[in-house]
Automatic annotation (TrEMBL):
Pfam families: BPL_N. InterPro entries: Biotin-prot_ligase_N, Class_I_gatase-like. Gene3D superfamilies: 3.40.50.880. It comes from Nocardia pulmonis. This is BPL-N domain-containing protein.
Amino acid sequence: MRHALQSRLARPVALVYRGPASLPGCSEAVAELLAASRWNFDIHFTGPGERVPLSQASLTRAALYAQPGGDELDEAYRQLREHREAIRRFVGAGGRYLGFCLGGYLAGATPGFALLPGDTDRYIDTRRATVRTAGNAVVEVSWRGRPRRLFFQDGPHFALETEEGATVLAIYDNHTVAAAVTPFGSGRVGVVGPHPEATPDWFTDAGLPRPHGPDPQLACGRDLALDLVNAVMT
């Protein structure tokens, strides 16, 4: 009998955290994003109460671990700190880590999994930040040199101590880093402060103006989120 994480076609396994360190809808949005990517992932939710536990054994069978958005950093880390070393070993051995908003904070060190060559901090506290509220907002970024407007909720910026081996995908208007892919051991870490995985209903439910475009998903940032997935996987 095959293990639950093995697929008949040996598809790469992607684990998406779902539990008390995430918010409803965030994990599902990341799973939908991964399903829309070109990587043919075998996607499983992992965390307390899920069929696949978050453990060293499950991570060993995975190609990618995704940490979605959530609420307070300190409380989220309290829920996840027992898995810190397992996640570090997984990425260091060649796995991929993908962090959105809170998942980006957790890639940092104070507190977090210490996967970045540097740390994270609140974008809203940076000098000349264009967003100052911790609530739902729209933030402007330059993604690979092109301006885009993305859903934002008190996301991080990434203070990279070195950019050696790193790819900065996006910057905020004040030139702090909004999205990047960096090496960690033999693996790679992809992080983003805003929410390019957001679906149109996120904007509507928050009472925010939705970016316009012929394809609502792309207008909200789906193409950028897929770019992040591709960058961390290659």
